[in-house]
Protein backbone atom coordinates (compact mmCIF):
# COMPACT_ATOMS: atom_id res chain seq x y z
CA UNK A 1 0.00 0.00 0.00
CA UNK A 2 2.85 2.32 0.82
CA UNK A 3 4.24 1.71 -2.68
CA UNK A 4 0.98 2.79 -4.29
CA UNK A 5 1.01 5.87 -2.11
CA UNK A 6 4.55 6.77 -3.12
CA UNK A 7 3.87 6.13 -6.80
CA UNK A 8 0.79 8.36 -6.57
CA UNK A 9 2.77 11.12 -4.91
CA UNK A 10 5.55 10.85 -7.50
CA UNK A 11 3.06 11.02 -10.38
CA UNK A 12 1.36 14.02 -8.82
CA UNK A 13 4.63 15.88 -8.21
CA UNK A 14 5.89 15.26 -11.75
CA UNK A 15 2.61 16.45 -13.28
CA UNK A 16 2.56 19.46 -10.98
CA UNK A 17 6.12 20.33 -12.01
CA UNK A 18 5.06 20.17 -15.68
CA UNK A 19 2.09 22.42 -14.87
CA UNK A 20 4.30 24.95 -13.08
CA UNK A 21 6.78 25.04 -15.94
CA UNK A 22 4.20 25.85 -18.63
CA UNK A 23 4.07 29.66 -18.16
CA UNK A 24 7.82 29.68 -18.88
CA UNK A 25 7.59 27.56 -22.02
CA UNK A 26 6.38 28.24 -25.52
CA UNK A 27 7.05 30.92 -28.11
CA UNK A 28 5.03 33.89 -29.25
CA UNK A 29 4.52 35.57 -32.59
CA UNK A 30 1.91 38.26 -33.08
CA UNK A 31 0.68 38.85 -36.61
CA UNK A 32 -1.24 41.88 -37.78
CA UNK A 33 -4.15 39.59 -38.68
CA UNK A 34 -4.31 38.16 -35.14
CA UNK A 35 -4.20 41.63 -33.70
CA UNK A 36 -6.99 42.87 -35.99
CA UNK A 37 -9.19 39.92 -35.04
CA UNK A 38 -8.84 40.70 -31.34
CA UNK A 39 -9.07 44.48 -31.48
CA UNK A 40 -12.36 45.10 -33.21
CA UNK A 41 -12.33 48.89 -32.67
CA UNK A 42 -11.11 50.34 -35.97
CA UNK A 43 -10.10 53.71 -34.45
CA UNK A 44 -8.00 51.98 -31.80
CA UNK A 45 -6.40 49.82 -34.47
CA UNK A 46 -5.33 52.94 -36.38
CA UNK A 47 -3.50 54.24 -33.31
CA UNK A 48 -2.02 50.94 -32.20
CA UNK A 49 -0.85 49.35 -35.43
CA UNK A 50 1.98 51.86 -36.17
CA UNK A 51 3.22 51.50 -32.58
CA UNK A 52 3.17 47.71 -32.88
CA UNK A 53 4.90 47.49 -36.25
CA UNK A 54 8.15 46.18 -34.71
CA UNK A 55 6.25 43.59 -32.68
CA UNK A 56 4.31 42.15 -35.62
CA UNK A 57 5.84 38.93 -36.99
CA UNK A 58 8.72 38.95 -34.50
CA UNK A 59 9.28 35.63 -32.73
CA UNK A 60 9.68 35.78 -28.95
CA UNK A 61 11.13 32.97 -26.86
CA UNK A 62 9.30 33.96 -23.67
CA UNK A 63 6.12 35.72 -22.67
CA UNK A 64 8.12 38.23 -20.61
CA UNK A 65 10.04 39.42 -23.69
CA UNK A 66 6.79 39.57 -25.65
CA UNK A 67 5.00 41.59 -22.94
CA UNK A 68 7.93 44.04 -22.69
CA UNK A 69 7.66 45.01 -26.34
CA UNK A 70 3.88 44.80 -26.46
CA UNK A 71 3.37 47.00 -23.40
CA UNK A 72 5.98 49.48 -24.60
CA UNK A 73 4.08 49.80 -27.88
CA UNK A 74 0.89 50.52 -25.91
CA UNK A 75 2.68 53.14 -23.82
CA UNK A 76 3.98 54.81 -26.98
CA UNK A 77 0.55 54.76 -28.57
CA UNK A 78 -1.08 56.28 -25.49
CA UNK A 79 1.66 58.84 -24.79
CA UNK A 80 -0.03 61.68 -26.68
CA UNK A 81 -3.36 61.06 -24.99
CA UNK A 82 -1.73 60.98 -21.57
CA UNK A 83 0.32 64.13 -22.22
CA UNK A 84 -2.83 65.96 -23.29
CA UNK A 85 -4.75 64.42 -20.35
CA UNK A 86 -7.30 62.96 -22.78
CA UNK A 87 -8.03 60.07 -20.43
CA UNK A 88 -11.12 58.93 -22.31
CA UNK A 89 -8.97 58.23 -25.35
CA UNK A 90 -6.32 56.17 -23.55
CA UNK A 91 -6.52 52.61 -24.92
CA UNK A 92 -6.85 49.81 -22.41
CA UNK A 93 -4.95 46.60 -23.16
CA UNK A 94 -7.70 44.37 -21.76
CA UNK A 95 -7.32 42.02 -24.74
CA UNK A 96 -3.80 41.01 -23.79
CA UNK A 97 -4.78 37.51 -22.61
CA UNK A 98 -6.60 36.72 -25.87
CA UNK A 99 -3.77 38.19 -27.91
CA UNK A 100 -1.09 36.26 -26.02
CA UNK A 101 -3.04 33.02 -26.46
CA UNK A 102 -3.53 33.67 -30.16
CA UNK A 103 0.16 34.54 -30.54
CA UNK A 104 1.34 31.35 -28.88
CA UNK A 105 3.30 29.02 -31.17
CA UNK A 106 5.44 25.96 -30.60
CA UNK A 107 5.45 23.27 -27.94
CA UNK A 108 2.55 24.27 -25.67
CA UNK A 109 0.19 25.18 -28.50
CA UNK A 110 1.05 22.01 -30.46
CA UNK A 111 0.62 19.71 -27.47
CA UNK A 112 -2.24 21.31 -25.60
CA UNK A 113 -4.38 18.16 -25.42
CA UNK A 114 -1.50 16.03 -24.14
CA UNK A 115 -0.56 18.69 -21.59
CA UNK A 116 -4.20 18.95 -20.49
CA UNK A 117 -4.20 15.21 -19.80
CA UNK A 118 -0.87 15.35 -17.92
CA UNK A 119 -1.51 18.50 -15.90
CA UNK A 120 -5.08 17.82 -14.89
CA UNK A 121 -6.17 14.23 -15.39
CA UNK A 122 -3.00 12.27 -14.59
CA UNK A 123 -2.09 14.61 -11.72
CA UNK A 124 -5.59 14.08 -10.26
CA UNK A 125 -5.11 10.33 -10.63
CA UNK A 126 -1.77 10.60 -8.81
CA UNK A 127 -3.43 12.54 -5.99
CA UNK A 128 -6.16 9.91 -5.66
CA UNK A 129 -3.59 7.08 -5.68
CA UNK A 130 -1.86 8.83 -2.82
CA UNK A 131 -5.05 8.98 -0.77
CA UNK A 132 -6.86 5.72 -1.41
CA UNK A 133 -4.42 3.40 0.46
CA UNK A 134 -5.44 5.19 3.67
CA UNK A 135 -8.58 3.07 3.42
CA UNK A 136 -6.57 -0.09 3.96
CA UNK A 137 -3.45 0.89 5.91
CA UNK A 138 -5.16 1.22 9.28
CA UNK A 139 -8.76 0.13 8.92
CA UNK A 140 -9.79 1.25 12.40
CA UNK A 141 -12.92 3.09 13.43
CA UNK A 142 -12.76 6.80 14.16
CA UNK A 143 -11.26 9.81 12.47
CA UNK A 144 -7.51 9.72 12.10
CA UNK A 145 -5.58 12.92 12.63
CA UNK A 146 -2.30 11.20 13.48
CA UNK A 147 0.86 13.30 13.15
CA UNK A 148 -1.13 16.37 12.10
CA UNK A 149 1.02 18.61 14.29
CA UNK A 150 4.21 16.92 13.19
CA UNK A 151 3.94 17.31 9.43
CA UNK A 152 5.30 20.56 8.04
CA UNK A 153 2.42 21.02 5.61
CA UNK A 154 -0.26 20.83 8.33
CA UNK A 155 1.63 22.58 11.13
CA UNK A 156 3.04 25.74 9.60
CA UNK A 157 6.33 24.26 8.47
CA UNK A 158 8.41 25.59 5.59
CA UNK A 159 6.42 23.56 3.10
CA UNK A 160 3.19 25.16 4.38
CA UNK A 161 4.58 28.64 3.82
CA UNK A 162 5.74 27.63 0.32
CA UNK A 163 2.24 26.35 -0.45
CA UNK A 164 0.71 29.58 0.90
CA UNK A 165 3.10 31.64 -1.23
CA UNK A 166 2.14 29.61 -4.30
CA UNK A 167 -1.58 30.16 -3.69
CA UNK A 168 -1.15 33.90 -3.10
CA UNK A 169 1.02 34.35 -6.21
CA UNK A 170 -1.50 32.33 -8.23
CA UNK A 171 -4.35 34.63 -7.15
CA UNK A 172 -2.30 37.77 -7.87
CA UNK A 173 -1.61 36.63 -11.42
CA UNK A 174 -5.15 35.35 -11.92
CA UNK A 175 -6.73 38.68 -11.02
CA UNK A 176 -4.06 41.19 -11.99
CA UNK A 177 -1.83 39.66 -14.69
CA UNK A 178 -3.78 36.80 -16.32
CA UNK A 179 -1.77 37.05 -19.54
CA UNK A 180 1.15 35.40 -17.75
CA UNK A 181 -1.10 32.36 -17.26
CA UNK A 182 -1.99 32.22 -20.95
CA UNK A 183 -0.42 28.79 -21.47
CA UNK A 184 -2.59 27.34 -18.70
CA UNK A 185 -5.66 29.02 -20.13
CA UNK A 186 -4.74 27.71 -23.56
CA UNK A 187 -5.01 24.12 -22.34
CA UNK A 188 -8.65 24.73 -21.48
CA UNK A 189 -9.78 25.86 -24.94
CA UNK A 190 -11.02 22.41 -25.99
CA UNK A 191 -13.25 21.95 -22.96
CA UNK A 192 -14.32 25.57 -23.02
CA UNK A 193 -15.40 25.33 -26.64
CA UNK A 194 -17.50 22.28 -25.85
CA UNK A 195 -19.18 23.85 -22.84
CA UNK A 196 -19.43 27.55 -23.63
CA UNK A 197 -19.02 27.62 -27.39
CA UNK A 198 -16.01 29.92 -27.08
CA UNK A 199 -12.37 29.94 -26.08
CA UNK A 200 -11.32 29.78 -22.47
CA UNK A 201 -10.72 32.76 -20.22
CA UNK A 202 -8.77 32.78 -16.97
CA UNK A 203 -12.09 32.44 -15.14
CA UNK A 204 -12.95 29.26 -17.00
CA UNK A 205 -9.55 27.89 -15.99
CA UNK A 206 -10.17 28.94 -12.40
CA UNK A 207 -13.63 27.35 -12.33
CA UNK A 208 -12.26 24.10 -13.73
CA UNK A 209 -9.31 24.02 -11.30
CA UNK A 210 -11.69 24.75 -8.43
CA UNK A 211 -13.88 21.78 -9.36
CA UNK A 212 -10.90 19.50 -9.95
CA UNK A 213 -9.21 20.33 -6.64
CA UNK A 214 -12.50 19.92 -4.76
CA UNK A 215 -13.17 16.59 -6.48
CA UNK A 216 -9.75 15.16 -5.61
CA UNK A 217 -9.83 16.44 -2.05
CA UNK A 218 -13.38 15.10 -1.67
CA UNK A 219 -11.94 11.61 -2.12
CA UNK A 220 -9.81 12.35 0.93
CA UNK A 221 -12.91 13.51 2.82
CA UNK A 222 -14.84 10.37 1.86
CA UNK A 223 -12.01 8.21 3.19
CA UNK A 224 -11.24 10.18 6.32
CA UNK A 225 -14.85 10.60 7.43
CA UNK A 226 -16.15 7.32 6.01
CA UNK A 227 -17.95 6.40 9.22
CA UNK A 228 -19.82 9.67 9.51
CA UNK A 229 -22.89 10.04 7.29
CA UNK A 230 -23.25 13.76 7.97
CA UNK A 231 -19.76 14.42 6.58
CA UNK A 232 -20.28 12.13 3.59
CA UNK A 233 -23.54 13.84 2.63
CA UNK A 234 -22.16 17.31 3.22
CA UNK A 235 -19.11 16.63 1.04
CA UNK A 236 -21.32 15.28 -1.74
CA UNK A 237 -23.54 18.33 -1.47
CA UNK A 238 -20.79 20.97 -1.76
CA UNK A 239 -19.21 19.05 -4.61
CA UNK A 240 -22.52 18.84 -6.46
CA UNK A 241 -23.29 22.54 -6.03
CA UNK A 242 -19.81 23.53 -7.16
CA UNK A 243 -19.72 21.38 -10.27
CA UNK A 244 -23.35 21.78 -11.34
CA UNK A 245 -24.31 25.26 -10.16
CA UNK A 246 -21.05 27.19 -10.15
CA UNK A 247 -19.40 25.63 -13.19
CA UNK A 248 -21.65 23.70 -15.57
CA UNK A 249 -24.87 25.71 -15.55
CA UNK A 250 -23.29 29.19 -15.98
CA UNK A 251 -21.13 27.90 -18.84
CA UNK A 252 -24.03 26.17 -20.55
CA UNK A 253 -26.10 29.38 -20.23
CA UNK A 254 -23.23 31.24 -21.92
CA UNK A 255 -23.29 28.69 -24.73
CA UNK A 256 -27.01 29.33 -25.15
CA UNK A 257 -26.28 33.06 -25.24
CA UNK A 258 -28.31 33.61 -22.09
CA UNK A 259 -27.20 35.57 -19.03
CA UNK A 260 -24.69 33.50 -17.11
CA UNK A 261 -25.61 33.00 -13.46
CA UNK A 262 -24.56 30.92 -10.49
CA UNK A 263 -28.02 30.41 -8.98
CA UNK A 264 -26.69 29.65 -5.52
CA UNK A 265 -24.32 32.60 -5.24
CA UNK A 266 -26.13 35.13 -3.07
CA UNK A 267 -25.51 38.86 -2.64
CA UNK A 268 -23.46 40.22 -0.86
CA UNK A 269 -21.08 37.29 -1.44
CA UNK A 270 -21.90 37.80 -5.11
CA UNK A 271 -21.11 41.49 -4.78
CA UNK A 272 -21.46 42.18 -8.52
CA UNK A 273 -25.13 41.11 -8.53
CA UNK A 274 -26.40 44.72 -8.57
CA UNK A 275 -23.66 46.14 -10.80
CA UNK A 276 -24.97 48.08 -13.80
CA UNK A 277 -23.73 45.61 -16.42
CA UNK A 278 -25.37 42.66 -14.62
CA UNK A 279 -28.67 44.51 -14.18
CA UNK A 280 -28.63 45.63 -17.81
CA UNK A 281 -27.88 42.09 -18.98
CA UNK A 282 -30.71 40.61 -16.90
CA UNK A 283 -33.32 43.25 -17.71
CA UNK A 284 -32.61 43.02 -21.43
CA UNK A 285 -33.15 39.27 -21.55
CA UNK A 286 -36.93 39.12 -21.24
CA UNK A 287 -38.79 36.94 -18.79
CA UNK A 288 -35.82 34.69 -18.05
CA UNK A 289 -33.64 37.67 -17.16
CA UNK A 290 -36.32 39.09 -14.86
CA UNK A 291 -36.82 35.67 -13.28
CA UNK A 292 -33.09 35.45 -12.57
CA UNK A 293 -33.12 38.91 -11.05
CA UNK A 294 -36.16 37.96 -8.95
CA UNK A 295 -34.51 34.70 -7.84
CA UNK A 296 -31.42 36.56 -6.65
CA UNK A 297 -33.52 39.05 -4.67
CA UNK A 298 -35.77 36.29 -3.32
CA UNK A 299 -32.75 34.46 -1.93
CA UNK A 300 -31.52 37.59 -0.16
CA UNK A 301 -34.84 38.61 1.37
CA UNK A 302 -36.67 35.30 1.91
CA UNK A 303 -34.34 32.38 1.22
CA UNK A 304 -31.59 33.28 3.66
CA UNK A 305 -33.73 34.13 6.73
CA UNK A 306 -36.17 31.24 6.27
CA UNK A 307 -33.51 28.62 5.69
CA UNK A 308 -31.31 29.92 8.52
CA UNK A 309 -34.32 29.92 10.83
CA UNK A 310 -34.92 26.22 10.20
CA UNK A 311 -31.40 24.91 9.68
CA UNK A 312 -28.88 27.54 10.81
CA UNK A 313 -26.26 28.98 8.50
CA UNK A 314 -24.93 25.48 7.88
CA UNK A 315 -27.44 24.99 5.04
CA UNK A 316 -25.38 27.47 3.06
CA UNK A 317 -21.86 27.62 4.53
CA UNK A 318 -21.35 23.90 4.84
CA UNK A 319 -23.68 22.43 2.24
CA UNK A 320 -23.95 24.84 -0.70
CA UNK A 321 -21.35 27.60 -0.83
CA UNK A 322 -18.34 27.29 -3.14
CA UNK A 323 -15.98 29.06 -0.71
CA UNK A 324 -17.19 26.74 2.05
CA UNK A 325 -16.83 23.80 -0.31
CA UNK A 326 -13.18 24.56 -0.97
CA UNK A 327 -12.58 25.15 2.74
CA UNK A 328 -14.15 21.79 3.59
CA UNK A 329 -12.13 19.84 1.01
CA UNK A 330 -8.80 21.51 0.19
CA UNK A 331 -8.85 23.28 3.54
CA UNK A 332 -9.69 20.31 5.77
CA UNK A 333 -6.03 19.38 6.49
CA UNK A 334 -5.54 22.91 7.86
CA UNK A 335 -8.66 23.34 10.02
CA UNK A 336 -6.70 22.95 13.28
CA UNK A 337 -4.71 26.12 12.52
CA UNK A 338 -7.60 28.49 13.24
CA UNK A 339 -6.94 30.95 16.05
CA UNK A 340 -9.09 30.14 19.12
CA UNK A 341 -8.12 33.19 21.16
CA UNK A 342 -10.58 35.72 22.50
CA UNK A 343 -8.66 38.42 20.64
CA UNK A 344 -9.27 36.66 17.32
CA UNK A 345 -12.99 36.40 18.15
CA UNK A 346 -13.19 40.14 18.83
CA UNK A 347 -11.22 40.93 15.68
CA UNK A 348 -13.46 38.60 13.67
CA UNK A 349 -16.67 40.31 14.77
CA UNK A 350 -15.39 43.77 13.96
CA UNK A 351 -13.97 42.89 10.57
CA UNK A 352 -16.73 40.68 9.23
CA UNK A 353 -19.51 43.12 10.14
CA UNK A 354 -17.49 46.02 8.73
CA UNK A 355 -17.24 44.18 5.41
CA UNK A 356 -21.02 43.66 5.47
CA UNK A 357 -21.56 47.39 6.02
CA UNK A 358 -19.07 48.18 3.25
CA UNK A 359 -20.91 45.82 0.88
CA UNK A 360 -24.26 47.46 1.66
CA UNK A 361 -22.88 50.99 1.21
CA UNK A 362 -21.11 50.05 -2.01
CA UNK A 363 -24.28 48.45 -3.41
CA UNK A 364 -26.42 51.45 -2.48
CA UNK A 365 -23.93 53.70 -4.28
CA UNK A 366 -23.91 51.46 -7.35
CA UNK A 367 -27.72 51.33 -7.48
CA UNK A 368 -27.94 55.09 -7.00
CA UNK A 369 -25.82 55.61 -10.10
CA UNK A 370 -27.78 52.98 -12.03
CA UNK A 371 -31.14 54.59 -11.35
CA UNK A 372 -30.19 58.29 -11.40
CA UNK A 373 -27.34 58.27 -13.90
CA UNK A 374 -25.35 60.45 -11.51
CA UNK A 375 -21.76 59.18 -11.06
CA UNK A 376 -21.42 60.74 -7.61
CA UNK A 377 -23.14 60.15 -4.29
CA UNK A 378 -22.43 62.70 -1.54
CA UNK A 379 -19.51 63.92 -3.65
CA UNK A 380 -17.90 60.47 -3.87
CA UNK A 381 -17.40 58.73 -7.19
CA UNK A 382 -19.51 55.55 -6.93
CA UNK A 383 -17.29 53.80 -9.44
CA UNK A 384 -14.29 54.27 -7.19
CA UNK A 385 -16.21 52.76 -4.23
CA UNK A 386 -17.05 49.78 -6.38
CA UNK A 387 -13.44 49.47 -7.57
CA UNK A 388 -12.13 49.67 -4.01
CA UNK A 389 -14.50 46.91 -2.90
CA UNK A 390 -13.68 44.71 -5.89
CA UNK A 391 -9.95 45.05 -5.30
CA UNK A 392 -9.84 45.04 -1.50
CA UNK A 393 -12.55 42.50 -0.73
CA UNK A 394 -13.18 40.60 -3.97
CA UNK A 395 -9.56 40.04 -4.91
CA UNK A 396 -7.36 40.60 -1.84
CA UNK A 397 -9.56 39.26 0.95
CA UNK A 398 -11.69 36.58 -0.70
CA UNK A 399 -8.99 35.37 -3.10
CA UNK A 400 -5.38 35.98 -2.14
CA UNK A 401 -5.81 36.03 1.65
CA UNK A 402 -8.92 33.86 1.95
CA UNK A 403 -7.43 30.86 0.19
CA UNK A 404 -3.72 31.72 0.31
CA UNK A 405 -3.72 31.71 4.10
CA UNK A 406 -5.21 28.19 4.43
CA UNK A 407 -1.82 26.64 5.35
CA UNK A 408 -1.10 29.38 7.87
CA UNK A 409 -4.37 30.48 9.49
CA UNK A 410 -6.71 27.59 8.78
CA UNK A 411 -9.36 26.90 6.20
CA UNK A 412 -12.00 29.51 6.94
CA UNK A 413 -10.10 32.80 6.99
CA UNK A 414 -12.44 34.36 4.45
CA UNK A 415 -15.64 32.82 5.86
CA UNK A 416 -14.73 33.84 9.38
CA UNK A 417 -13.21 37.28 8.96
CA UNK A 418 -14.36 38.55 5.59
CA UNK A 419 -17.53 37.07 4.08
CA UNK A 420 -20.39 39.59 4.24
CA UNK A 421 -22.96 36.88 3.51
CA UNK A 422 -21.63 34.83 6.43
CA UNK A 423 -22.09 37.92 8.60
CA UNK A 424 -25.72 38.25 7.44
CA UNK A 425 -26.40 34.52 7.92
CA UNK A 426 -24.68 34.70 11.32
CA UNK A 427 -26.87 37.54 12.60
CA UNK A 428 -30.00 35.52 11.78
CA UNK A 429 -28.49 32.35 13.27
CA UNK A 430 -27.58 34.12 16.48
CA UNK A 431 -30.95 35.71 17.12
CA UNK A 432 -33.66 33.83 15.21
CA UNK A 433 -32.93 30.22 14.45
CA UNK A 434 -33.78 26.73 15.60
CA UNK A 435 -30.20 25.60 15.10
CA UNK A 436 -27.85 24.93 17.99
CA UNK A 437 -25.20 22.47 19.08
CA UNK A 438 -26.34 20.90 22.30
CA UNK A 439 -23.72 19.76 24.78
CA UNK A 440 -23.91 16.96 27.27
CA UNK A 441 -21.35 18.44 29.64
CA UNK A 442 -21.35 15.58 32.11
CA UNK A 443 -19.82 13.30 29.51
CA UNK A 444 -17.01 15.65 28.50
CA UNK A 445 -13.50 14.47 29.30
CA UNK A 446 -11.86 17.77 28.29
CA UNK A 447 -9.77 16.20 25.57
CA UNK A 448 -10.12 19.37 23.50
CA UNK A 449 -10.54 17.60 20.15
CA UNK A 450 -13.62 19.68 19.37
CA UNK A 451 -11.88 23.02 19.91
CA UNK A 452 -8.76 21.89 18.08
CA UNK A 453 -10.62 20.96 14.90
CA UNK A 454 -13.15 23.79 14.87
CA UNK A 455 -12.24 25.70 11.73
CA UNK A 456 -14.11 28.79 12.95
CA UNK A 457 -11.93 29.14 16.02
CA UNK A 458 -14.73 28.39 18.50
CA UNK A 459 -13.59 27.03 21.83
CA UNK A 460 -16.20 24.29 21.76
CA UNK A 461 -14.80 22.58 24.83
CA UNK A 462 -15.56 25.60 27.00
CA UNK A 463 -19.23 25.37 26.01
CA UNK A 464 -19.25 21.62 26.52
CA UNK A 465 -17.80 21.87 29.99
CA UNK A 466 -20.46 24.40 30.96
CA UNK A 467 -23.22 22.37 29.36
CA UNK A 468 -24.11 25.41 27.23
CA UNK A 469 -25.75 25.37 23.82
CA UNK A 470 -23.52 26.66 21.04
CA UNK A 471 -25.45 29.31 19.15
CA UNK A 472 -22.47 31.34 17.99
CA UNK A 473 -23.08 33.36 14.84
CA UNK A 474 -19.81 32.14 13.36
CA UNK A 475 -20.57 28.41 13.66
CA UNK A 476 -20.95 27.03 10.14
CA UNK A 477 -22.38 23.74 11.34
CA UNK A 478 -19.66 21.67 9.71
CA UNK A 479 -20.19 19.06 12.41
CA UNK A 480 -16.51 18.17 12.72
CA UNK A 481 -16.51 18.98 16.45
CA UNK A 482 -19.22 16.37 16.95
CA UNK A 483 -17.45 13.94 14.62
CA UNK A 484 -14.13 14.06 16.49
CA UNK A 485 -15.62 14.02 19.99
CA UNK A 486 -14.85 10.61 21.52
CA UNK A 487 -17.71 10.88 24.01
CA UNK A 488 -20.68 11.91 21.90
CA UNK A 489 -21.03 15.13 23.85
CA UNK A 490 -22.01 17.34 20.94
CA UNK A 491 -25.08 17.17 18.76
CA UNK A 492 -26.12 19.50 15.90
CA UNK A 493 -29.86 20.02 16.26
CA UNK A 494 -32.75 22.04 14.84
CA UNK A 495 -35.10 22.23 17.79
CA UNK A 496 -37.91 24.52 18.89
CA UNK A 497 -36.67 28.02 19.63
CA UNK A 498 -37.60 27.87 23.31
CA UNK A 499 -34.70 27.35 25.67
CA UNK A 500 -32.17 28.03 22.97
CA UNK A 501 -30.27 30.46 25.11
CA UNK A 502 -30.34 28.13 28.12
CA UNK A 503 -28.47 24.93 28.68
CA UNK A 504 -30.43 22.22 26.92
CA UNK A 505 -31.13 18.97 28.70
CA UNK A 506 -31.72 16.12 26.33
CA UNK A 507 -34.75 13.91 27.00
CA UNK A 508 -32.54 10.90 27.65
CA UNK A 509 -30.64 12.87 30.30
CA UNK A 510 -33.84 14.01 32.01
CA UNK A 511 -34.49 10.42 33.00
CA UNK A 512 -31.52 10.54 35.39
S1 LIG B 1 -18.52 24.62 16.46
FE1 LIG B 1 -18.44 22.61 15.45
S2 LIG B 1 -19.98 22.73 13.83
FE2 LIG B 1 -19.53 24.84 14.47
S3 LIG B 1 -17.92 25.52 13.07
FE3 LIG B 1 -16.89 24.71 14.90
S4 LIG B 1 -16.47 22.54 14.38
FE4 LIG B 1 -17.98 23.28 12.89
S1 LIG C 1 -14.22 16.55 22.03
FE1 LIG C 1 -15.93 15.94 23.34
S2 LIG C 1 -14.96 15.11 25.17
FE2 LIG C 1 -13.35 16.25 24.08
S3 LIG C 1 -13.45 18.31 25.00
FE3 LIG C 1 -14.79 18.35 23.21
S4 LIG C 1 -16.83 17.88 24.01
FE4 LIG C 1 -15.34 17.27 25.60
TrEMBL record:
UniProtKB keywords: 4Fe-4S, Electron transport, Iron, Iron-sulfur, Membrane, Metal-binding, Transmembrane, Transmembrane helix, Transport
Protein name: FeS-binding protein
Sequence intervals crossing the membrane: 7-26, 114-137, 158-176, 203-223, 235-253, 288-311, 350-371, 391-408
Cited SUPFAM superfamilies: 4Fe-4S ferredoxins
Keyword presence, Metal-binding: yes
Ranges for domain 4Fe-4S ferredoxin-type: 435-463, 466-495
GO molecular function, one term: 4 iron, 4 sulfur cluster binding
GO CC list: plasma membrane
Amino acid sequence: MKIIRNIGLTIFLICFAVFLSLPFLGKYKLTEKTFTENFSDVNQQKVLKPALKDVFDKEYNSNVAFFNDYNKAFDDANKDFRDKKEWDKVINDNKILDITKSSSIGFVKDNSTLLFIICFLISALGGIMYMVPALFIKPVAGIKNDYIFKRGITSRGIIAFCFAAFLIIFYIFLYQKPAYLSNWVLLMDGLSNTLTGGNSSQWFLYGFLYCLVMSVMSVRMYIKYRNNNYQLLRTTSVLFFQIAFAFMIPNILTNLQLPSMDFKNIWPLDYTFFFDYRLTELTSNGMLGYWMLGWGIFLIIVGVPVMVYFFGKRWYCSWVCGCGGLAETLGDPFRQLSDKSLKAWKFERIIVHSVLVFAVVMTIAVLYTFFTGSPKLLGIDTYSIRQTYSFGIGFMFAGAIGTGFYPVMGSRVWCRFGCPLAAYLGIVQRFKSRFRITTNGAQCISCGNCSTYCEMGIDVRAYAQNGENIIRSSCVGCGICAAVCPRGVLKLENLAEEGRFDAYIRPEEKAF
